[in-house]
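Internal tracking record. Fields below are filled automatically when a chain is submitted to the structure queue. Please do not edit lines marked as system-generated. If the sequence contains nonstandard residues, flag them in the REMARKS field before resubmitting.
Queue: standard
Priority: normal
Entity type: single polypeptide chain
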Amino acid sequence: MVAEYLEKIRQEMYEYKLCIEREYKNKVLLLKENEQFTAMLEDSLDKNYESFSPRDVNHESYEKIDKLKKERAEIKQEKEELEEKILNINNHLEELDSVLQYTNKNEKVMLSVDEISNAEEIFRKKILETQEMERQRIARELHDSIVQSLTSIIHKVELCTKLMDMDTVRCKLELQTMSKTVKKIIEDMRQVIYNLRPMSLDDIGLEVTLEREAAKWKNTGKVLVDYQIEGEKKKIPPLVSLTILRIVQEACNNILKHAQAEHIDIILTYKENSIKVQIVDDGCGFDVESMNQLHREDGSGFGLSMMRERVYLLSGNLSIESVIGKGTTISVEIPIDKEEK
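SYSTEM-GENERATED OUTPUT FOLLOWS
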């Protein structure tokens, strides 16, 4: 059938787009790393020391900076080429979607065994895509915090070996800075571990974990947060608890960054065969349809699409109601499998 053929082409084009987007995100990260490392090298140059010393102590650093700048220009050019490719693919996908809509309206197609099998294959790919997004999030967190700090330490070590016999005072200061950096790395690692699997979920449960998260956002001083629990408390499967926590975290982080809200309500409700959570804010609101099509440049965060995928995998329902200027309500309801209780 024509619709099947067009859908197959669209799926192949979409998978190719995902590959290009992943490559584009890698270029963005490389460019960011290049800029940060270049800035770090430039900050470490001791121009006052050079003016009194006959030795060219920083010659190697200058060479590294020049090399990094050339690499940055190449990465920028490759990034721009990938942006153009993504734009062209999006245009082709929009054209295919229009043709598919017209074709589906004019064809009465009954699902066959082959079509069901194809639908299952697409569903499996969506699961893999969800897992890949999680891995990208973890990789980004490690890259932006741990890797950058370790890179800084390596540079400081190289600098200290040069200054050890020439300027012991500055060498000691650099070693003190390295000690602070190591402590920061330990803190960042603890945060990454918490993000992967909050221990409080196992120790004190979903209710208290959400209460602590609400207190954390309230302590920022940017927004008032009310947290409520309704219904009789029940045992929740670990995967359901973790999904609810992730959704609440993503929703509240987005509110703090973008909604300009003054108040957030988090309502956790236990029902007979399900658990429901609502996140309500009085912020600026947004156009839900346009946000559903939005892809973050760095692939970060849980995102609206990721929320829907996670809830769908747990046979739940997610609804988002938002009015520009009047705030947003996110509602998630997930069934509780009696066999997992």
